[in-house]
């Protein structure tokens, strides 16, 4: 996906098309939220397959290998699919990793929550269909969606395995610390000390949850914010690099290109083309 945001609806007819097309397990370079109101979803993720009846929520973080098969139930299927780049709602995205890393799918207990989500999705879709959609409106509504979903997660009190609870709690605390300090030149030892654990154990938890080291997660957080600032502000490349703890513009440019495949200037130009 090259766009910063994309959205579509899966109806019964679309479900039939998907079922008759090639659909292999794959990974995305974007985040994906699926909100199901009718039908079933067969979801292969985290090396397990699960069949869910609507209403349900499924969130797939970028890089996770998965496959979804939207299925009819009682002849019906109605699902919203929202896809977006992590920098689109940078602050929210990393909190989503903490919430959904070990529970990609949520079966909802009633249709009441879904009705709220469906209403917001319809408003987002209406804006998205405009000739010149206002992405700031879409971004605020998308954040509202996740706020409601997180509230539903807390009510359901997910995660009953004690070892997973401990790992999940540590990971969430690490991400909270990261939000406070990612603009500073802090390494894995700093975060491990703050969490009263060894660097090795913190790395093991991060590898288990995101398949990335602590250093990689720190770097990705910086990169995500850099993309956000390049997209939403007029700050020059040197200013953005300095704000994120890079004292030299050349080092920031090199680090950015190594992860993003484009220089900061090239990335900004590409985004401006998409938004124009």
Short characterization:
The protein is built from eleven helices and eight strands.
Description:
By secondary structure, the chain is α+β, with helices and mostly antiparallel strands. The chain is 54% helix and 17% strand. It contains 11 helices and 8 strands. It has a 5-stranded antiparallel sheet with strand order 1-7-2-5-8. Strand 3 and strand 4 form a beta hairpin.
What does the secondary structure layout of this molecule look like, with pairings?
Elements: E1 5-10, H1 12-19, E2 31-38, E3 40-45, E4 48-53, E5 56-60, E6 66-71, E7 78-84, H2 90-100, E8 105-107, H3 111-128, H4 135-156, H5 162-181, H6 188-194, H7 199-210, H8 214-232, H9 237-243, H10 249-260, H11 264-275
Antiparallel strand pairs: 1-7, 2-5, 2-7, 3-4, 3-6, 5-8
Helix pairs in contact: 2-5, 3-4, 5-7, 6-7, 8-11
Kindly state the percentage of residues in helix. Answer: 40-55%
Q: What Rg is obtained from the alpha carbons, in whole angstroms?
A: 19 Å
Walk across the major sheet and give the strand order: 1-7-2-5-8
- Low-pLDDT runs of 5+ residues are none
Distance between the termini: 17 Å
Mean pLDDT across every amino acid position: 85
Largest sheet: 5 strands, antiparallel
Strands, count? 8
- Overall geometric form: globular
Helix segment count?
Answer: 11
Descriptive terms for the model:
276 residues; alpha+beta; 5-stranded antiparallel beta sheet; 3-stranded antiparallel beta sheet; 8 strands
């Amino acid at each position: 996906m090259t766009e910063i945001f994309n959205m579509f609806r899966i109806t019964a007819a679309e479900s039939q098309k998907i079922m008759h097309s090639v659909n292999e397990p794959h990974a995305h370079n974007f985040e994906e939220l699926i909100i199901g109101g009718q039908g079933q979803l067969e979801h292969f993720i985290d090396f397990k397959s699960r069949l869910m009846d609507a209403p349900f929520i499924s969130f797939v973080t970028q890089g996770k290998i998965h496959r979804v098969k939207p299925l009819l139930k009682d002849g019906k299927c109605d699902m919203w699919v929202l896809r977006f780049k992590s920098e689109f709602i940078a602050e929210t995205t990393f909190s989503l990793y903490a919430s959904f890393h070990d529970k990609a799918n949520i079966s909802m207990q009633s249709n009441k929550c879904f009705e709220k989500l469906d209403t917001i999705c319809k408003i987002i879709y209406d804006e998205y269909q405009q000739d010149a959609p206002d992405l700031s409106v879409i971004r605020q509504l998308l954040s509202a969606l996740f706020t409601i979903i997180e509230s539903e997660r807390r009510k359901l009190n997910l995660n009953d395995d004690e070892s997973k609870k401990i790992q999940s709690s540590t990971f969430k605390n690490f991400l909270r610390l990261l939000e406070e300090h990612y603009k500073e030149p802090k390494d894995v030892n700093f975060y491990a000390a703050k969490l009263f654990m060894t660097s090795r154990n913190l790395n093991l938890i991060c590898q288990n949850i995101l398949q990335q080291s602590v250093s990689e997660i720190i770097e990705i957080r910086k990169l995500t914010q850099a993309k956000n600032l390049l997209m939403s502000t007029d700050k020059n490349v040197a200013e953005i690099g300095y704000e994120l703890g890079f004292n030299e513009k050349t080092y920031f440019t090199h680090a950015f290109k190594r992860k993003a495949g484009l220089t900061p200037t090239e990335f900004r130009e590409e985004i401006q083309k998409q938004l124009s």
